[in-house]
Write a structure and sequence with these properties.
The protein is α/β, with parallel strands linked by helices and 470 residues long. It is built from 14 helices and eleven strands.
C-alpha cells in the first residue's frame, strides 16, 4: 500500500524532495486538501495562507532544482500558533482585542522557518492570549480533539496539537508557560517539547509571562521534533531571557538507545494525585518497565510536592500576565472572553510579598529537581493525569481546571517532552513526560526515540470518515 503524503515524516519528505520523487507543491496542495476535508470537524486553523504558501512551495521546488539546499525544513509545510507574529499576516491571539493586528515583522521563529524555505500553511487556534479557554465567546471556535471531537485537545496550543494529530501538518509551533505545549501533546497523542528556558527566542511572540514563557514544537515523531529544534534554537541578544549557550546536536542521541541510563520516577507526584486516572498511572508504570527492558535503570525518587510547583508558578504567571494586560483590562474589559478575564483578574490581587516569596521558592524547587538530575540522566512523570475531558463536562460559569502536571518544568526551566504511552479504554491518548537536565535536549529526545521505536505508537493515527482525507 502506497504511503499517504501526510504520513511522510519531515526526514522522509525531505529525502523525497531532494531526490526529485516529490515536490513541495504536491505536499502543500495535499495538505490544503486534507485541511479542507478534516478541519471543519476540528477547527485547528483560524487562518489559512494558501496564496503565500503555494508561492513558498514553488520557490522551494525551484531552489531544489538549482541545487540550493537551505536546510531540513525546506519545502516542508508547517503552521504557527496564532500568538507568533507574522509580517503582513494577521496575528490575533484568538482574541477580539487583537482582531485587526497585523505585525510588521516576523517573530524570530517564523523568520527562521522562512529562511530555511519552509512553507507556512496558516495560523492555529489557541486559548485566548494562551490562557483563556476553551471558550465559545471568542471570535473563532475552539479547536477539537481529532481522536474524538466531543473532547478537548488541551491548551493553550490547542490548534497545534489538533493539527499535528490529524495529519494536517507534521510540525506546528506552540508555547508553554504552564504546560501549553505538553498538555495538547498529551491529550492529542503527539510529541510536544518544551525546551530549556532561553534556548528558543520568544521575540515577536505575544507574551503571557516573561519569566515562564517557552516556545517549542509539537510533532508526530521524535525525530521531526529534533529537526524542528535544529531550525529554531539559538541565542537572541534581543530576547532578555535568551541563553547564550552552544546549540546542541538534537539528533545526536537518536537511535542510541537507553542502555545503562538512570531514569528517576517521582511516582508520588502522580500515583495518588487528585484527578489521576488508573489508566494513566498504569500506562506510565508500563512505560517505565519498557525502558527498563531496553536497558535503563529505573529508580523511584522523592521531590517536593507538585502542588508547591503549581502554586509557585501560578503566582508568577498570573501576576506577570496581569501586568501585560493591565491597560486593556482597565479600558476595554468586555473585549476579553470570560475565562481570560476571570483567570487574569486574579493577578491584580497578587502582592509584592506573594511574588517575592514565589521567586524565592522557585529557586528552592529548581534546586531539588536538579539535585536529582545529578545522578539521574532524566526523569519520567505524568503530563496529563487523565485522558482528554469532554466539552460537555465544562461548567460554563466556572473556569476549567484540567488535571495536568506540567507547571513544575516551567518553574525550573528544565526541558520536558510529552510522548504517548498508549490509549484509554475510550480510545483517547495516554502520555508521560521525559524531563532532562538544562540544555540536554538530546538525551530527552534520545530516550523518547527509544521508547517510540519500541512501542510504535506513532503508527496509529485518528481516522476520519472523509474520502478526500485519505
Amino acid at each position: 500500500m502506497t504511503k499517504a503524503l501526510h504520513d511522510y515524516s519531515i526526514a522522509e519528505a525531505g529525502a523525497a524532495l531532494r531526490s526529485g520523487k516529490l515536490t513541495s507543491m504536491a505536499l502543500t496542495e495535499h495538505a490544503f486538501e486534507r485541511i479542507k476535508a478534516i478541519d471543519p470537524k476540528i477547527s485547528a486553523f483560524i487562518l489559512l495562507t494558501r496564496e503565500s504558501a503555494l508561492a513558498e512551495a514553488a520557490k522551494a521546488d525551484a531552489d531544489f532544482a538549482k541545487g540550493i539546499d537551505k536546510g531540513p525544513m525546506q519545502g516542508i509545510p508547517h503552521a504557527l500558533k496564532d500568538i507568533y507574529g507574522t509580517a503582513g499576516i494577521r496575528t490575533t491571539c484568538h482574541s477580539k482585542v487583537l482582531i485587526d493586528n497585523v505585525p510588521k515583522e516576523d517573530s524570530v521563529v517564523a523568520a527562521k522557518f522562512k529562511a530555511q524555505g519552509a512553507v507556512m500553511l496558516g495560523k492555529l487556534a489557541t486559548h485566548e492570549f494562551a490562557i483563556g479557554g476553551p471558550s465559545f465567546d471568542l471570535p473563532f471556535p475552539p479547536a477539537r480533539n481529532p481522536w474524538n471531537p466531543d473532547h478537548m485537545p488541551g491548551g493553550s496550543s490547542s490548534g497545534s496539537g489538533a493539527a499535528v494529530a490529524a495529519g494536517l501538518v507534521r510540525i506546528a509551533m506552540g508555547s508553554d508557560t504552564g504546560g501549553s505545549i505538553r498538555g495538547p501533546a498529551a491529550y492529542c497523542g503527539t510529541i510536544g517539547l518544551k525546551p530549556t528556558y532561553g534556548l528558543v527566542s520568544r521575540r515577536g511572540v505575544f507574551p503571557l509571562s516573561y519569566t515562564l514563557d517557552h516556545c517549542g514544537p509539537l510533532s508526530w515523531t521524535v525525530e521531526d521534533c529534533a529537526i524542528a529544534m535544529e531550525v529554531i534554537a539559538g541565542f537572541d541578544p534581543q530576547d532578555p531571557g535568551s541563553a547564550d549557550v552552544p546549540v546542541p546536536d538534537f539528533r545526536s542521541k537518536l537511535g542510541r538507545g537507553v542502555q545503562g541510563m538512570r531514569i528517576g520516577v517521582p511516582r508520588h507526584w502522580f500515583a495518588k494525585a487528585e484527578g489521576a486516572s488508573a489508566e494513566m498511572v498504569r500506562s506510565i508504570d508500563d512505560a517505565a518497565q519498557t525502558l527498563a527492558k531496553l536497558g535503563a535503570v529505573i529508580e523511584e525518587i522523592e521531590l517536593p510536592d507538585h502542588e508547591l510547583y503549581n502554586a509557585c508558578g501560578r503566582v508568577i504567571l498570573l501576576s506577570e500576565a496581569y501586568a501585560i494586560h493591565e491597560k486593556d483590562f482597565q479600558t476595554r474589559p468586555l473585549d476579553y472572553g470570560l475565562y481570560t478575564y476571570l483567570r487574569m483578574c486574579m493577578g491584580a490581587f497578587v502582592t509584592a510579598t506573594d511574588l517575592t516569596q514565589a521567586m524565592r521558592l522557585r529557586r528552592e524547587l529548581s534546586r531539588a529537581v536538579n539535585a536529582q538530575l545529578k545522578h539521574c540522566d532524566a526523569l519520567i512523570t505524568a503530563s496529563a493525569l487523565a485522558p482528554a475531558p469532554a466539552f460537555a463536562d465544562i461548567d460554563p460559569k466556572a473556569v476549567p481546571n484540567f488535571p495536568i502536571q506540567t507547571m513544575a518544568q516551567d518553574v525550573t526551566g528544565n526541558p520536558a517532552m510529552s510522548i504517548p504511552t498508549g490509549f484509554s479504554a475510550s480510545g483517547l491518548p495516554l502520555s508521560m513526560q521525559i524531563v532532562g537536565r538544562a540544555f540536554d535536549e538530546p538525551t530527552v529526545l534520545g530516550i523518547g526515540a527509544a521508547f517510540e521505536a519500541a512501542t510504535k505508537l506513532h503508527e496509529r493515527r485518528p481516522t476520519f470518515n472523509v474520502a478526500k482525507a485519505a
